[in-house]
Amino acid sequence: MKIVRIILFSPLALIRLLFVVLISAYVTTIGWVWLKTLGFSRRLQEWVVGTWGRSILFMCGIKIDSNELPTSEHFILMPNHRSYIDIFIVAATTPAAMVGKAEIAKWPFGALGARVSNSILVDRKNQKSLLLTMKRIKESVDKGMPVILFPEGTTYKGPLTKKFKNGSFKIAADGNIPVIPMAIDFKDVNDAWVDKDTFVGHFFRQLGKPFTYVTIRYGNPISETDHKELQTKTKAQIDSMLTAIQNA
Predict the structure, then answer these.
(1) Which of 81-85, 107-111, 170-174, 222-226 has the lowest mean pLDDT?
(2) Helix (H, G, I), strand (E, B), or coil: what is residue 57?
């Protein structure tokens, strides 16, 4: 009943949620036709991911303050993770292949969306899936298609970052792939989607507001052959950027 009341009193959020579904259907359908007729390309990936992300940011009133992404096509982007809103943000600002949980394939348009965007879905409980993910990340970056990976592995309210997973840094270190740290911070701390909060409940509470204000900062690329050192430096840089944002 609580969720029903939230929906009834959040008409703007309802319109926005319907738009997210419609734009997802539109982009994945066009992407599938493009894939079948012309094959996969970086241009297809940028169009699918970028169009989807920018459209949602505009319709959902998500306002971003950002610096410039360091110029490169050979990197793994590693942002901290606050909410599903992060996915809209990185899609709009850095159209690239995303590494996500295998469960995404069960979402509406999830499996097809991953296919047309070259995104990588991993089952963290399956060793073969983890090894295949490592291989696909390196292949993507080697072809000039950057990869986005959330090193915390789950959402965290902050104020800084939680412990990072080791695997993503081993991939970058072993493959000599530069990591670009990225800090994402919401003006309203309640925009973080954490713990057992439901997607629908959170969406209608937080995206029923006229605007959502987000600050993002890209850090300097980091290259290390020692994955522990790479992890330490990446975390330190993201935490430093988050601290600067919050103290501004």
Answers:
(1) 107-111
(2) helix
Where would I find the beta strands (DSSP E) of 102-244? 120-122, 147-148, 179-186, 212-218
**pLDDT value, residue 108:** 65
CA 61/CA 128 separation, integer angstroms = 40
Give me the sign of the Cα torsion angle 84, 200, 59, 19.
positive
User: Using CB atoms within 10 A of its CB, is residue 192 exposed (0-12), middle (13-18) or buried (19+)?
Assistant: buried
**pTM greater than 0.85 (yes/no):** yes
Tokens matching residue 158: 């902050």
Quick: pLDDT tens for 83-99. 999 999 999 999 888 88
Nearest to 61 by CA among 88, 27, 81: 88
The CATH number given to 2-247 is: 3.40.1130
- In sequence order, what E strands does the chain have? 62-66, 76-79, 97-101, 120-122, 147-148, 179-186, 212-218
Amino acid at 169: F
- Whether 145 and 42 have beta carbons less than 8 Å apart is answered as yes
What is the rounded average pLDDT of the residues 135-142? 85
Domain range annotation of the chain: 2-247
Using the predicted structure, report yes or no on whether residue 9 has a pLDDT greater than 70.
no
